[in-house]
Amino acid sequence: MIQLRNVEKYYEAGFGRTYVLRRINLELREGEFVSIMGPSGAGKSTLLAILGMLDGTWSGEFEFLGNAVHNMKPKQRVELNKRYIGFVFQSYHLIDDLTVYENLDLPLSYRNLKSSERASLVCDALDRFHIVGKKDLFPSQLSGGQQQLVAVARAVVASPKLILADEPTGNLHSSQGKEIMELFKRLNEEGTTIIQVTHSETNAAYGNRIVQLQDGWIV
């Protein structure tokens, strides 16, 4: 599903280059559940942003479902992201001036679906995440944990082929966190590929492979 060859990311600094990722070679097969682990500053979130096509300033080769991402224009990458990827951000990234319902409907608006189908999928997600009562609220009216639940619901509502999750349970109570991880496990068993960044050994144990990063290198 994904092949990275010699992927590197750096920033130009006054005294030269500061590398965030170094010579990343990685193959991820469809249906895997992979955890990316490592200390703070290891490059984990940067790698996830590249995999999600949210960061285009890197060098190397990246193939996704047979598409050469490294040769694509930004607009083509955005289309690929919208069609196949659900992303759970550490800082939620909900759209402030949309209600919870509208935030969940947004990923579905990129698919070729009737409005009745979209409404049904949004209602299912609201129900599954126990946030029906929040559907008309705006993100600023929600607690951090509630925003996190909405962010996870938005990532899975369109049944993407790939879910990328950056510390998906970081702002949740342990019982809610367990619920989210169990959901990810079920989705993975149904065929969804999942890549998560986590500091939690417990969360990592839900996956079938761990990729360790340190100082931008796979170790």
Secondary structure blueprint with pairings:
Blueprint: E1 2-13, E2 16-28, E3 33-37, H1 44-51, E4 59-64, E5 67-68, H2 74-84, E6 85-88, H3 100-109, H4 115-128, H5 144-156, E7 162-166, H6 174-189, E8 193-197, H7 201-204, E9 209-214, E10 217-218
Parallel strand pairs: 3-8, 3-9, 6-7, 7-8
Antiparallel strand pairs: 1-2, 1-4, 4-5, 9-10
Write a structural description:
This protein is of the alpha/beta class. Helix content is 35%, strand content 27%. The strands form two sheets. A six-stranded mixed β-sheet has the order 6-7-8-3-9-10, with helices on both faces. It has a four-stranded antiparallel β-sheet with strand order 2-1-4-5. A hairpin with a 2-residue loop joins β1 and β2. α3 packs parallel to α5 (144-156).
According to CATH, the homologous superfamily is P-loop containing nucleotide triphosphate hydrolases
| Strand fraction | 25-35%
CATH overall fold name: Rossmann fold
Give the strand order, joined by hyphens, for the main sheet: 6-7-8-3-9-10
Coarse structural class: alpha/beta
User: What Rg, in angstroms, do the CA atoms define?
Assistant: 17 Å
Q: Estimate the mean pLDDT confidence.
A: 94
The succession of helices and strands, N to C, reads EEEHEEHEHHHEHEHEE
What's the end-to-end separation, in Å? 22 Å
Q: Fraction of residues in helices?
A: 25-40%
Task: Please tell me what the overall shape is.
Answer: globular
| Total number of strands | 10
Which residue ranges are poorly predicted, with pLDDT under 50 across at least 5 consecutive positions?
none
- How many structurally independent domains? 1
Number of helices: 7
Largest sheet: 6 strands, mixed
CATH architecture: 3-Layer(aba) Sandwich
CATH class: Alpha Beta
